[in-house]
Structures
1.
Amino acid sequence: MGKSTASIDWLHRAPPVSGLERIEAYFSGFGYDPHRHDTYAIGHTLLGVQSFHYRGRKTHSLPGTTMVLHPDEVHDGWAGSDEGFKYRMIYVEPALIQQILGGKPLPFIHNGLSNDPWLYRACQVLVQRLDCGLDPLLEQDALFDLAHALNNAAGVNTSRKTFDYQAAERAREFIHGALTRTITLDEMAEHCGRDRWALSRDFRLLFGTSPYRYLTMRRLDLVRTLLGQGHSLVDAALTAGFTDQSHMTRQFRSTYGLPPSRWVRMLGRT
């Protein structure tokens, strides 16, 4: 895959909104190590060949297709051609998809790439240039279209499991209110009125990750916000509820595929 070329790589982020993150990035060679995050990663390659390992196979994204990486699926990334690769991506919280689809199992695109034209058009609205602000109503309409296009592209899931969507949603809200303290599954289950193991199963089915991973990811969201505001690594780590900077750095790298120091440097590129 070659060595890192962080001196010319760059990353831009649009101002985050609730449940949705938009980025545009360029990598000239090596992109990022194997990692996973608890959101959908959906987007388009704009230039070059975007190569990555996904579910045990090597995949190559070209302009004209839609990447759909499922929550908590491990993937990496590197340039598949000498020109490097540029892409735009949105990271969508599964909770948003759930709110639109009404508590169905999350749509899953098996190979991480789709040629579905409806999905491509639905995604295109949300991955337009980052300097083009999204009208709030346009964004909500686009998310509605995206959720249903995802469900269509994934096909019909004939196996139906019994689950409690309302209890899982209460657990998700409970986590948001307890980011900086230690919580237990028993405490969460009591709050939601649900058996702890049934709650854990439902949470994974509906939101694509475990309660602990979800808590860790929300802490990392706060870390990235603080780092973007100029806070030091140690201050961001402690404020977000991590035990120390090293703990945060390990979680950051395993989630985003690069250390937080490199991520901060790339944000400064033009």
Note: The domain at 10-154 is CATH 2.60.120.10 (Jelly Rolls).
2.
Amino acid sequence: MSVAESLLLRRAAMAWLDQRPSERVDFGWLSSFEYGGQRIPLMDRQRGIRKPAGMDAALAIRTTFTPPGQVPPYADSVGPDGLQRYKYRGSDPNHPENVALRRAFSSKLPIMWFVGVASGSFEPIYPVWVVGDAPQELEFTLALDHAQRHFGDAGAADPDYRMYMERLTKVRLHQRVFRTQVMLAYESRCAVCNLGHSQLLDAAHIIADGHPDGEPVVPNGLAMCKIHHAAFDSKILGIRPDTLTLHIRQDILDEVDGPMLRHGLQDMHDRPLMKLPRSRSARPDLARLQTRYGEFLSA
């Protein structure tokens, strides 16, 4: 298949993904993609790098879901330039899967990335480009945004530009995956009031993004409706870590206003969280809650 033909297939696959019936996808649905009257699964069940028969370059990559508290099999990370890294398959740079991904790099072909967010469930990230290859580190460099594709050595020396690149990586990958995993853990319900409309819910950080302990992992997250997320971030609402009860700042309790203040905030005071993950490993990290509660008390 020529590069031009491969590009057309990729565009068709991404357009098909745009029409997916739900935000997350699974192996069965990804196996149903058809192009030119032929079924072309977008994911391999066993391989992390997908290269369909008849193609020279990789079409998609996959990252397996790792439950909270467990160590992932491949240590993908953000590099010092703010760009995402993706580890080789094994330790041989010339493994066929690594060669296939390298061909996507040399041909400047976009790929799809399916990031595991639960067992058998994936968040699709696309288009993604391979923009670097480091055999000595056994990893590829990925661009998750058009702006990152043109990040060169000159930009790498600029700390502001590096920070911009890292912010793009967080928005395009880490925060999307974080939100999806938090919503799954809390079954798309607000931890404070149990509101169940996902469009009105956020994945709130306990420790803020950018802090050393502010990783985008489920134990550092809470599903919150937008009003309670804003109250949490504004130190109007706090969560006592030893009892997991809600506390509203005293000046807000003393205020007289309309029904939103009364029922949405004041009535929440001294109540327990209404929703927690079923899995204990996904529940809020108590040390992080203690730090955040200390900030609330000092407000």
Note: The chain has nine helices and twelve strands.
3.
Amino acid sequence: MRITLIAVGKTEDKYLIEGIEKYLSRLKHYINFNIVIIPDIKNTKSLSEAQQKTKEAELISKQINPTDVVVLLDEKGKKHSSISFSAYLNKQMIGSVQNLVFIIGGPYGFDETIYKRSNTSVSLSDMTFSHQMVRLFFVEQLYRAFTILKNEPYHHA
């Protein structure tokens, strides 16, 4: 299985980039994982929220294959503990999923076309985080999930 994280806009804060890179290097030992960055939409001042979401959806859709299992990182999504998230990943691997795609939307969330294309959604918290921070939190939780599956001591349940 391969896991892809699609995110809108680049990460600018050095401390977040360093944290993400730390977990990316650790994840290499467990899974084929990559991050696809969708460029920020230009001239957003002249666009409504709906128009901005539509443009982002067009760019996101180009990165998704018909056979991909798509999971939105969305505030309305299913909440998992770290252990139940690892079980979810394990179920996908056992179910022969080839490519599991997680998506972090833009500042206004997802266009309806992306909601319709998704297979499910996951919420990382009831709290709101910057989209840049969510990337770090997600890759850390992904790493944690694999250490749980491998019975390694990183996660102390």
Note: The mean pLDDT is 94.
